[in-house]
Write a structure and sequence with these properties.
With 366 residues, the chain is mostly helical. The chain contains 16 helices and 5 strands. A 3-stranded parallel sheet has the order 1-2-3. It has a two-stranded parallel sheet with strand order 4-5. α3 links the parallel β1 and β2. The relative contact order is 0.13. The N terminus is likely disordered.
Length: 366
């Protein structure tokens, strides 16, 4: 009789393990009835590379949402992720300037240091230590298939170790603050999934500590290059007319939009597949004017694409004018910008230090 009893016991253990495996998220992300996440426990984290002054795509696609989120969530952290930036060579003086330009730009766009923790990633050393620990929980095949590595290593024929492990540092950025929500674009979803996986792996091995961060997808369509609407707007685009920076003068904005690639049909319609150039202008117009895409198309009825470009330019100029003025003003106040970063560093470390101390304790380091 002992054998059937043992077989039943093994069967029940297997069922229990399967149940736990399928319900890890329920137990690890604090969403059970006893641990249901309250608004007071929610925390948002996001980062932006110090590329200097952001372009229009950064502003409409991410920063507008960032400003909104700081009023929706009780705890919000925004980091200038300079450790990520050195996966490609950086001139030190240029990098220092770019970091402060980014601070000025974020403040000018509406980020409020009293509502959100604004800080420089490298000033919080806990990021790098947690990244090493999480890297030891990550397999090489898992990283090899992520889009960042596949795209950038192909562009350069080879990539650095830093580029390869870039997503692990991204995961550490989020988990260090036990963030529950991360605003991301669709192209970053796989990297956020790595953070979720690492939270589960750590929690299963060392006990529940990290919530599984959830994606906050923006509603604005991706802003495309003005010269090649098949790719998104980028500061690294070699074509000067491809991107609009938020500090561009009205004349520069009008010129860039006037030279934007469209097609030979004069009517303004929204069809990203068939008419990517015109659709990109509609997206920009709608986002800059604070209206829907359908409303933008309705307003363009009876107007050819040449005249419509003037409408788009005017909407962008009006939207960016106060931001441009504020960025230029803040650039002259370097001590203020450095003080903002220093205050942010202190606040960030007050959150990061206890988390890393607990991680170290669970690993047996202390």
């Amino acid at each position: 009789m002992a054998l059937p009893v043992r077989a039943k016991l093994v069967h029940h253990i297997k069922l229990a393990r399967r149940f736990l495996r399928h319900n890890q998220r329920f137990f690890c992300d604090g969403s059970s009835s006893e641990n249901k996440e309250s608004p007071g426990q929610a925390r948002v984290f996001s980062g932006i590379q110090p590329t200097g002054v952001p372009h229009l795509g950064n502003y409409l696609g991410a920063l507008v949402n960032w400003v909104s989120l700081q009023d929706q969530y009780p705890s919000v952290l925004y980091s200038i992720v300079d450790l990520h930036s050195i996966t490609q060579p950086q001139d030190p003086e240029r990098l220092r300037t770019n970091i402060l330009d980014m601070v000025a730009s974020l403040l000018a766009c509406g980020i409020d240091p009293d509502k959100a923790v604004l800080f420089q990633q490298s000033q919080v050393p806990e990021h790098a230590e947690l990244a090493w620990i999480l890297g030891c929980l990550t397999s090489m095949p898992r990283l090899r298939h992520l889009p960042q590595w596949k795209m950038k290593s192909r562009q350069r024929n080879e990539g650095s170790v830093g580029l390869y492990t870039y997503p692990v540092l991204q995961a550490a950025d989020v988990l260090l603050y036990r963030a529950t929500h991360v605003p991301v674009g669709e192209d970053q979803i796989q990297h956020l999934e790595l953070a979720q996986d690492l939270a589960r792996i750590f929690n299963n091995r060392y006990g529940a500590l990290f919530p599984e961060p959830r994606a906050l997808l923006g509603t604005t369509q991706k802003v495309k290059s003005l010269r090649d609407p098949s790719v998104k707007m980028s500061k690294s685009d070699p074509q000067a007319m491809a991107a609009i920076n938020i500090t561009d003068s009205p004349d520069d904005i009008a010129l860039k939009i006037r030279r934007a690639v469209t097609d030979f049909t004069s009517e303004v319609t929204y069809d990203p597949g068939a008419r990517p150039g015109v659709s990109n202008l509609v997206t920009i117009h709608a986002a800059a004017a604070g209206i829907g895409v359908d409303e933008a198309v309705t307003r363009a009825a009876g107007v050819d694409t040449g005249a419509y470009k003037a409408t788009v330019a005017e909407a962008v100029i009006q939207r960016l004018a106060p931001i441009r003025e504020e960025v230029l003003r803040l650039r002259e106040e370097r001590p203020h910008l450095e003080a903002v970063l220093d205050a942010g560093r202190r606040r960030a470390r007050r959150l990061a230090t206890p988390t890393l101390q607990e991680v170290r304790r669970r690993l047996g380091f202390s």
